[in-house]
Design goal:
With 738 residues, the chain is mainly α. It is 59% helix and 6% strand.
Length: 738
């Protein structure tokens, strides 16, 4: 009993529980604590499990030193280890007195630095530069917020940096874990944190005032005029941190957090990213510390890649290698590569990458958690708010707000404005969490995002391939309620380039899931853009997959469209026999199903192929049949493609083609026709008249990102022209395509 307060039905804090708590707060494993104290790991384990209820005084002193406990706290710790006085200290801790230092885990001095620290040179240099600025800034308290995703090494970096800078702060270095993300513990209350700092700084317990504001004032007064370094680890919010800051200049505060503490004024920000591959390999080799494993080994490079170059993942896998001599780097590669949930596989004792991620996930609201889980279903490497909205069945504005919160929690990155991505391991973790959702909801979410990519690709692709078969068939699912504005050629080209990898991934994902219409229609929709930009290999891969999906589904129109595009690509690559076979098969399929636009296109492309192979009679016959079909269909774009072909070089043909192209806003065809007009002038010896149409063609090619721009630039720089592209009349007007 103390005063009138009796300890009734309060479980005593055993020394075993106390040792476990202190070790967890200093983020040491049992082995690391044993090594630092110079005792055996078995001794630490037996004490923590209560097998040995007390410790010898010598052992307790060594443990106190290894834990970095200040003198007054170390004396209490040794007494507790000897079985004396712990109940009184527990009561004192509840009243915010002597053992308040234990409750908030305030320690005087820094945790030990690690010998295996690797890389981060640029970030350390930035911190040192900030220290120089602090010295010149007079009365300013330096604050540096160190952020990054779970497992990226924020605490390790902060402790290493603090040790390097400690000499500049002779009045003391303080380390205070704030437990913003510690399993089983609530974030430290700022009032308790201040009590711990004051006690650690040597303020008697009787002089620690009650209440947050009074303690904050006492702390500021105590450190006024002193040069201290304060390391606040794992902050939960700016509200938790603000009362702990010194009030006068000359001190430095390093704080780590998984949140972006955007409301903390005047804080410099260091955002840690994953390690570069070379440094990641060095870290794995150092932590493994066994023969036969070197940073230059290909298997080591592959392990670090499968770890996503994340320091925590690398450290846990290295621990497995260090303690399992039978394992090899190659066997670990095989195990990680085959795993469906790598974050869960990366573990040691009670630590795992999945558990670290889960602490950040638990901080989210239910709606944010749902979006995070569903983001694991996104097929491509990046996404925007429109794709997230389709995935989550919400509006782009609401999706953007949710994404901002995930970004603030370092659960997603924003490599470019408005474009987001998940780290590979976070993606796997999100996918593993999504697997626990209702299957129907999961399938519906994945279907919505495929529909979004398909319909938006069709809207953008109209500027490049309006005759694609995808525009002549019913499509799966409803169009997305909201999509980006793609009314102009420039908007469409920019969107298609930004989403090119995602559209490819969406088509592949659709094929894997058995959504054949998406797998066929997405490549058809973007084929014209890929051709205009010269992405021949990507287009070929996509249309080969589309061909397989169409054949598996018995989709003859889709098969014919894929074959026709492959034939054009094969012709461009000089594979004329393959091109002839693909185009002939496409023509036969179009005839079987009675698709006249497809027949006209296939005949048109066959005609171009026969010109290249020197069969001019067959080329003429094919083009005449195609022209007749185009005319019957009222297809002016089809006529246009014939009029700009190699069989119609005359300037008047190109002029008629240009008129059609402008009338139907077909930008690529405008450029082809203008280039043809320019070359017609050159062939006739009218080089001065060739400049204007060639310049106009160049502008359009550049606007749509087409390879023809280089070709026209070379022509314009020809010495035979009266002026090159750099010396053209600035008053020359350029047609606006689309």
């Amino acid at each position: 009993m103390r005063g009138d307060t009796a300890v009734v039905d309060e479980p005593a804090l055993t020394f075993a529980a106390l040792l476990r708590r202190l070790r967890a707060e200093t983020r040491l494993t049992q082995e690391e604590l044993a090594e630092a104290a110079g005792v055996s790991p078995r001794s630490v384990s037996d004490l923590e499990r209560g097998i040995n209820r007390t410790a010898r005084k010598e052992t307790a002193v060594l443990l106190a030193r290894a834990l970095g406990l200040p003198e007054v706290v170390a004396e209490l710790f040794v007494a507790a280890a000897r079985g004396r006085g712990l109940a009184e200290d527990v009561v004192a801790a509840r009243q915010g007195t002597a053992l308040g230092a234990f409750a908030a885990a305030a320690t005087r001095g820094l945790p030990r630095d690690v010998a295996s620290f690797t890389g981060r040179g640029a970030e350390l240099d930035r911190l040192a530069e900030g220290l120089d600025g602090l010295a010149a800034g007079g009365g300013v308290v330096g604050i540096c917020a160190i952020g990054g995703m779970a497992g990226v090494g924020k605490t390790t970096f902060a402790v290493h940096a603090a040790h390097r800078l400690a000499g500049s702060f002779p009045d003391g270095q303080f380390y205070l874990p704030l437990h913003g993300h510690t399993r089983g513990q609530r974030p430290v209350d700022p009032a308790d944190a201040l009590s711990s700092l004051l006690l650690t700084a040597g303020v008697p317990a009787t002089q620690v005032p009650p209440g947050l504001e009074a303690r904050a004032a006492r702390w500021r007064d105590h450190v006024a005029g002193k040069k201290i370094l304060l390391l606040l680890d794992d902050a939960a919010s700016h509200e938790q941190v603000r009362p702990l800051l010194p009030g006068t200049g000359g001190s430095l505060v390093l704080l780590t957090s998984r949140r972006r503490l955007t409301a903390l004024e005047d804080a410099a920000v260091i955002s840690l990213d994953i390690l570069p591959p070379g440094e990641a390999a060095q870290l794995l080799a150092r932590l493994t510390a066994r023969g036969g494993i070197h940073a230059a080994d290909p298997a080591v490079a592959e392990i670090t890649r499968l770890c996503g170059y994340l320091p925590l993942a690398i450290g846990l896998v290295a621990s497995q290698l260090r303690h399992h001599p039978a394992q090899t780097a190659e066997s670990v590669v095989a195990s990680l590569a085959a795993a469906t949930d790598r974050p869960e596989l990366m573990r040691a004792e009670n630590l795992s990458v999945a558990a670290a991620f889960d602490l950040s996930y638990q901080d989210l609201s239910p709606g944010q958690q749902r979006l995070f889980r569903r983001l694991g279903l996104i097929p491509g490497p990046t996404f925007d708010a429109y794709a997230a909205a389709a995935l989550d069945g919400t509006s782009p504005g609401e999706a953007r707000r949710q994404l901002d919160e995930l970004y603030d929690q370092h659960l997603i990155a924003e490599p470019a404005l408005g474009r987001y991505q998940l780290h590979d391991l976070l993606r796997e973790h999100a996918r593993a969490l999504a697997a626990t959702d209702d299957q129907a909801d999961r399938v519906a979410a994945a279907g919505r995002v495929l529909d979004y990519y398909l319909y938006t690709a069709l809207a953008a692709g109209r500027h490049f391939a309006p005759r694609a078969s995808a525009y002549r068939r019913p499509l799966p699912g409803p169009p997305s309620a909201q999509a980006p504005d793609l009314s102009t050629l420039g908007q469409s080209a920019a969107w298609l380039e930004a989403e090119r990898a995602n559209l490819h991934a969406a088509a592949d994902d659709a094929a894997t899931r058995g959504h054949s219409r998406h797998a066929v229609a997405i490549p058809a929709a973007i084929g014209g853009f890929l051709a205009a930009r010269g992405h021949w290999d990507q287009s070929a891969a996509l249309h080969q997959s589309a061909l397989a999906a169409a054949r598996q589904a018995g989709d003859r129109l889709g098969e014919a469209g894929a074959l026709s595009t492959l034939g054009v690509l094969q012709r461009a690559n000089g594979s004329y026999p393959d091109a002839a076979a693909s185009l002939a098969r496409a023509l036969a399929l179009y005839r079987d199903i009675g698709d006249h636009p497809g027949q006209a296109d296939a005949l048109n492309e066959l005609g171009f192929l026969r010109v290249l192979t020197g069969d001019y009679q067959a080329a003429t016959a094919s083009h005449q049949q195609a022209l007749a079909l185009f005319g019957d269909l009222g297809n002016r774009l089809g006529e246009l493609s014939l009029r700009t072909s190699a069989t119609a070089q005359a300037r008047d043909q190109h002029s008629r083609a240009l008129a059609i192209a402008r009338d139907i806003s077909a930008a690529p065809e405008q450029a082809h026709a203008l280039e043809g007009i320019g070359h017609s002038h050159l062939q006739e010896g009218n080089s001065s008249q060739a400049v204007v149409p060639l310049r106009q063609a160049l502008t359009i090619y550049q606007r749509i990102g087409a390879p023809g721009a280089d070709r026209v630039q070379q022509t314009l720089r020809s010495p035979n022209l009266p002026g090159n592209v750099e010396r053209l009349d600035p008053d020359v007007t350029t047609p606006t395509p689309g």
